[in-house]
Amino acid sequence: MSNENLVHFPKCKELKDTANAESVLSYAKYESYLELLSKEFKERFLVFSSFEEHFALFSAQFTFYVAKAEKDLQMELLELQSDSTLRAKYLELGIPAFFSYLPERFTEGLQLGLWQCTVLPMYANSCFPS
Fold this sequence. Notes:
66% of the residues lie in helices and 0% in strands. It folds into two domains: 10-44; 50-127, no CATH class. By secondary structure, it is mainly α.
């Protein structure tokens, strides 16, 4: 905005193209609002960066590098990744429907099941807003 590049602001561009726009369109004023908005987004969504690895594991369990997973998930993750039937179902159903298909050995009392119960609501709210 400071260099008067209005490519991403079509309404401001329309306003600029009208007569007497200089008296209405204050780039400095809008720039300060955009800086405040940017700061607010960074602060509000900072928490998502702390969950980046969790979301990556959740969305790509069959390709996630096991050594990067939490220690208590690694064995279950290896077992999941080695099951070709589950991999095929994952590709067929996608996220999050796949998790309702998982056998009890991955959902009942195991670390992967507990982890999914924690991450699924966060993932669903950020990737599939209502």
